[in-house]
């Protein structure tokens, strides 16, 4: 039996590699075009790291007229969660990520299937080609045997893995291995490593530049006994046949790079440009640590969606984390789309990116300040539609919501107090009668009777058609008639003469109209609320005062 027959014995129905080379032709793109992929596992937890990477992939691919594809890495069925792909799809599209190929695209593309569990034949074909070259072999060791070796290695303080004397099946010989396969023994397929761990190799990482690492010496598993590939082997095969040029992935994969490079070499394929991104970190009690799924709800994308962060704000923020020169570019180009920024992998930091919610909030304030009232209203409605049925019903009055959002918008100094939908909703809740609540208190200088008197006078003199100036003049006159200074300055000059100043009177009106001590400009608020609502609020407040 020669190696070719042996390979056929190991992987019976596998086709020749040439078949797939023909099926998945080169993309014929110019050298400068980047083909990137996002390769999440369907664990149901879509996190900021996925989005961070997707944004970089998308930018690199689009600006080079390449392609960006989605591949689902579902070879570990233990980690798979029902509905994970739907939530992946809705989260990524919420944040403006779109793919040129993959299961969310229609048509999917010619390099599919884009789900690893459907690509078994391709991995088998690649593994078979390595067995034929003597670069891979079947291994019959059971889980227990491997666990036992692991224990002995631990005791002897030796490196873990399948190598040297530990690699029991490496030199079984093809005849006896073939016998065992025929007898139906389960087996995995392992890489026959050159084992040169005393040698190093250098490689250019798209982010880190030149890195030098020891070579791999481990006969790692490529195909598991159920025929499924390991991550190591699957991504090598997929990135080759999907003609990927740039692999952006988390730095946790850096340590396995020697395995991946050895696999590419064994296959005689060119490897893509690896770009290992940094981990997202946060400052916690003065120390920098990795964002954790268990401790930090803000790691999950659901967090931003349910609070209603605007996707533009999150993208702006992530882009500023991804490329250190982004903020400067944004300052110089306030009106441009983020997509117009020239992204560069080499400008991505190589030491932990510091994630800071406060910074996101600041960026969000600026982003929302630049949107029109109609855009804000539409955003609020969409968000409420997904996350708050009660609000969604209230927001059905489109023009009222837009008018609310228009207060203080535009002009030289637009208001910058909107951060995310949930916060905006509570900010504007007083405009809605069903949500109006008296949260503030009367100014100290003004007792209940005095407040009632002031409000009654206000109501008597109220004319909804007054301009802002007419309205304010009226309040001043009324304040004075009650013994209040027309402004703070006059009060300061002759403190003994007044009970307070006009600000105290408008505070009472504000409290009656909004239930709050802080609110946007009262004249604006009244114009949006409409005359009837203003009058009703004031008279009910008078009754409330008893
Ligand atoms: N499925 C891997 C993960 O979710 C992808 C790593 C890669 O992009 O190669 O971490």
What does this structure look like?
This protein is elongated. The strands form six sheets. The protein has a three-stranded antiparallel β-sheet with strand order 3-4-7. A three-stranded mixed β-sheet has the order 11-10-12, with no helix packed on it. It has helices spanning 3-10, 17-23, 48-63, 84-94, 120-132, 143-155, 174-182, 231-241, 257-267, 301-307, 311-322, 326-332, 357-369, 373-387, 389-394, 398-406, 421-427, 448-461, 468-481, 488-493, 502-514, 522-529, 531-545, and strands at 35-38, 67-70, 136-139, 188-191, 200-205, 209-214, 221-223, 246-250, 273-277, 280-284, 287-290, 353-354, 484-485, 500-501. The protein starts with a helix and ends with a helix. It has 546 residues and is mainly alpha-helical. Strand 13, helix 20 and strand 14 form a beta-alpha-beta unit. It binds glutamic acid (GLU).
User: What ligands does this structure carry?
Assistant: glutamic acid
Major sheet details: 3 strands, antiparallel
In terms of per-residue confidence, which ranges show pLDDT below 50 for 5 or more consecutive residues?
A: none
Chain-averaged pLDDT: 94
Overall radius of gyration: 33 Å
Strand content: 5-15%
So what's the overall shape?
elongated
Structural class: mainly alpha
Number of beta strands:
14
Q: How helical, in percent, are the residues?
A: 40-55%
Distance between the termini: 102 Å
Number of helices: 23
Strand order of the largest sheet: 3-4-7
């Amino acid at each position: 039996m020669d190696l070719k027959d042996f390979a056929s014995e190991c992987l019976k129905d596998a086709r020749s590699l040439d078949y797939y080379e023909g099926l998945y032709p080169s993309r014929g793109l110019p050298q400068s075009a980047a083909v990137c992929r996002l390769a999440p596992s369907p664990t149901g937890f879509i996190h900021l790291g996925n989005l961070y990477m997707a944004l970089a992939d998308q930018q690199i691919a689009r600006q080079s007229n390449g392609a960006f594809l989605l591949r689902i890495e579902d070879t570990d069925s233990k980690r798979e969660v029902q509905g994970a792909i739907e939530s992946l799809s809705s989260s990524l599209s919420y944040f403006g990520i779109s793919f040129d190929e993959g299961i969310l695209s229609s048509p999917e593309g010619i390099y599919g299937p884009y789900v690893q569990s459907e690509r078994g034949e391709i991995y088998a074909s690649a593994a078979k080609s390595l067995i034929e070259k003597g670069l891979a072999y079947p291994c019959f060791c059971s889980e227990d045997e491997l666990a036992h070796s692991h224990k002995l290695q631990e005791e002897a303080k030796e490196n873990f893995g399948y190598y040297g004397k530990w690699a029991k099946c490496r030199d079984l010989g093809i005849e006896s291995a073939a016998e065992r396969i025929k007898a139906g023994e389960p087996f995995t397929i392992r890489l026959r490593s050159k084992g040169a761990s005393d040698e190093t190799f250098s490689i250019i990482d798209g982010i880190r530049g030149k890195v030098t690492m020891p070579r791999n010496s481990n006969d790692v598993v490529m195909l598991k006994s159920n025929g499924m590939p390991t991550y190591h082997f699957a991504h090598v095969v997929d990135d080759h046949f999907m003609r990927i040029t740039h692999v952006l992935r988390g730095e946790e994969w850096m340590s396995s790079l020697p395995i991946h490079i050895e696999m590419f070499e064994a296959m005689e394929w060119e490897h893509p440009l690896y770009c290992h991104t940094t981990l997202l970190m946060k400052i916690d009690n003065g120390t920098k640590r990795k964002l954790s799924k268990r401790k930090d709800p803000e790691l999950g994308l659901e967090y931003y969606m349910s609070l209603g962060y605007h996707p533009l704000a999150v993208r702006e923020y992530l882009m500023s984390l991804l490329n250190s020169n982004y903020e400067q570019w944004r300052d110089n180009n306030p009106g441009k789309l983020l997509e117009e920024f020239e992204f560069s992998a080499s400008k991505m930091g190589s030491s932990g990116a510091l994630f800071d919610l406060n910074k996101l909030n600041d960026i969000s304030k600026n982003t929302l300040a630049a949107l029109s009232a109609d855009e804000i209203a539409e955003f609020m409605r969409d968000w409420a539609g997904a996350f708050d049925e009660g609000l969604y019903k209230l927001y059905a009055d489109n023009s009222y919501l837009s008018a609310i959002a228009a207060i203080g918008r535009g002009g030289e100094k637009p208001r910058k107090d909107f951060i995310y939908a949930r916060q905006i909703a509570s900010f504007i809740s007083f405009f809605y009668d069903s949500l109006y609540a008296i949260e503030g208190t009367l100014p100290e200088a003004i007792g209940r009777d005095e407040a009632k008197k002031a409000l009654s006078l206000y109501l008597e003199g109220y004319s909804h058609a007054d301009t802002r100036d007419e309205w304010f003049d009226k309040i001043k006159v009324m304040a004075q008639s009650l013994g209040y200074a027309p402004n703070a300055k006059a009060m300061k000059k002759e403190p003994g003469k007044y009970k307070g100043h006009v600000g105290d009177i408008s505070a009472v009106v504000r409290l009656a109209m909004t239930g709050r001590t802080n609110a946007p400009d009262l004249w604006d608020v009244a114009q949006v609320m409409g005359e009837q609502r203003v009058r009703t609020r004031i008279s009910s407040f008078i009754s409330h005062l008893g």
